[in-house]
Amino acid sequence: MAHHNYDVLIIGSGAAGLTAALNLADTLKVGVLAKAGLSEGSTAHAQGGIAAVLEAGDTFESHIEDTMIAGAGLNDRRTVEFVVEHAPAAIERLAALGVPFNPTEGEGHDRWHLTREGGHSHRRIVHVDDATGRAVQQALEKAAQAHPNITLITDMMAIDLVTGRHAVRYSGDGRVRGVYALHREKGHVALFTALRIVDPDAPTFASRQCFLQQFAIVKIDRHVDLARHVIRSVILRQHFAEKLCRVEIVFRQIFPEELAAADDVSLAHGE
C-alpha cells in the first residue's frame, strides 16, 4: 500500500479546503485530497455572490443585526461578528487571487457592482455574473497549484480514518492520524498520514445520519460514492451527529434527492 505523509492533510478541494491549504502552506507541507476532479465539489456550482459591508453608509453593526434577524436569533453572535467583520478583507484577498468580481458600471463610489438580496438592508453582494462559485474555485485552484508546499491529489476518496486502533500497539485515544483513500479509477487504497487532519465537510457527512436514506452528490461509480457517504458518516457520527441532528438540520437546505436512496428515486418523485 502506498503511503504519503504531510504536515497537514486536507480532505476536500472546495473553497474551504483550498483556502485552508493556502493559509497553512507558507510554513507547512500540505496535501489536499479531492474525491474526483478539483472542481467537481459544491463550490463551483454556487451562483449568487458574497456579502460584505462595502457600500457607503453601511456598517458592520447593520450587517450583524440583519444576519441575527434572518437567523431568528439562533446564530452564534460571536461567529456572526467575526465573519461580518472579516468579510471585506476576505473579498479583497479573493480579488487579489484573481476573482474577477463585476465592476461598477459608469461613475460611482463603489469599486464593484453590489446587489441587494433578501434579509439585507443594504447592497452588499459582490458577484461574478451568476457564477461566483466557479470563479472563486478557479482562482483558488490556480493559487494552490502554483504553491510549492501544496500537493493536490485528485480522484482519491477518503473511506476510513486512521486512528489508534490501526496501530501495531492498539490505542483507544481517538486521535486521528490520517485517512485511507480509494482511487476512483484504479480501485487501489492508499494511506495518507499527517500531524493534523482538516475535513471541512465532516459536519455535513455526520448530519446525513439524520436522514433515513443516504444521498450521493456525484454519479455513483460501482457504488463507491454511496459507500463513501455511508462509511464516513458512520465513522464521524459519534463525534458530531448527536449535536448536529438537534441543531444543524435547521440550517440545511433540503433537496428532494436527499430523501431517496441513490438507486431508488421513488421518494424524490413523490411516489
The Rg value, from CA coordinates, equals 20 Å
Number of helices: 6
Q: What name is given to the CATH topology of the largest domain?
A: FAD/NAD(P)-binding domain
Quaternary form = single chain
| SSE-based structural type | alpha/beta
Query: How many structurally independent domains?
Result: 3
N→C terminal distance:
45 Å
Neighbour order of strands in the largest sheet: 5-2-1-8-7-6
> Quick one: how many beta strands?
8
Helicity, in percent? 25-40%
* Biggest sheet statistics: 6 strands, mixed
**What is the global morphology?**
elongated
Secondary-structure element pattern, one letter each:
EHEEHHEHEEEEHH
The low-pLDDT segments are 205-227, 233-241, 260-271
Task: Please give the CATH architecture of the largest domain.
Answer: 3-Layer(bba) Sandwich
According to CATH, what is the class of the largest domain? Alpha Beta
Tell me what portion of residues adopts beta-strand conformation: 15-25%
